[in-house]
Amino acid sequence: MYELGVVYRNIRRADGAVASKLGALGTATVHEAMGRAGLMKPYMRPIYAGAQASGTAVTVLLQPGDNWMLHVAAEQIRPGDIVVAAITADCTDGYFGDLLATSFKARGAHALVIDGGVRDVRALAEMKFPVWSKAVSARGTVKATLGSVNVPVVCAGALVTPGDVIVADDDGVVVVPAALAPKTLEAAAAREANEGAKRARLAAGELGLDMYDMREPLAKAGLRYID
């Protein structure tokens, strides 16, 4: 059950340098390195192509059609944070636009991830303020009902604890628990190096059939070649 009407000011954030390095590796590599865990639902899409961000989570719990707590959350943002907003019930209203983005950017936020709607997307793209959202909607919101800031939330199917690492790009959004961030970075970097070697072999003309030793299991499975 969610805790309502509270703002936790002092949260333990993951190391910012680790978050930045994880961001450079991308969501797919980080997701695989973490045992294929932490990925938000695929409906979470960037509002413009090529968006990429990583940082530490400031979490917000919102009520349907009410963006009051996003304004409250702005005060808690530190440089390098990503605001992660969950809704207590399904709602695709436009919770966030260029004015809030201006405030978030001034505080040093790297992005917003929201399991709801956003608007002013052209202005947000021009500002280069990345947002991953469930929907785009011109429908506005009110400021009337309390939620919370910096409590654990479930956003698009993923548990996010304040201070966790968020990695987001064109492939989606992945959450790395703060305690697992260094180990995940090590595994992700090793995976990237391994894929680099494979990429070089494929570029030289070698087939995946041979690189991955697929021919024998394919034959055992009954694959036949007919000329």
Structure overview:
This protein has 227 residues and is of the alpha/beta class. The chain has eight helices and eleven strands. It has helices spanning 16-25, 27-33, 68-74, 98-107, 121-127, 181-203, 208-211, 215-221; strands at residues 45-46, 53-62, 81-87, 94-96, 111-118, 131-136, 148-149, 153-155, 158-160, 165-169, 172-176. Strands 1, 2, 3, 4, 5, 6, 7, 10 and 11 form a nine-stranded mixed sheet that branches. Strands 8-9 form a two-stranded antiparallel sheet. The radius of gyration is 20 Å and the shape is elongated.
Summarize the structure in short:
This protein is of the alpha/beta class and 227 residues long. The chain has eight helices and eleven strands. Strands 1, 2, 3, 4, 5, 6, 7, 10 and 11 form a nine-stranded mixed sheet that branches. A two-stranded antiparallel ribbon has the order 8-9.
Low-confidence stretches: none
Q: Which structural class matches the secondary elements?
A: alpha/beta
Q: What is the average per-residue confidence, as pLDDT, rounded to a whole number?
A: 97
Strand content bin: 15-25%
Shape: elongated
Radius of gyration: 20 Å
- The termini sit apart by 63 Å
The total count of strands amounts to 11
Sheet bearing the most strands, described? 9 strands, mixed
Q: Count the DSSP helices.
A: 8
Order of helices and strands: HHEEHEEHEHEEEEEEHHH
Level of helix content? Answer: 25-40%
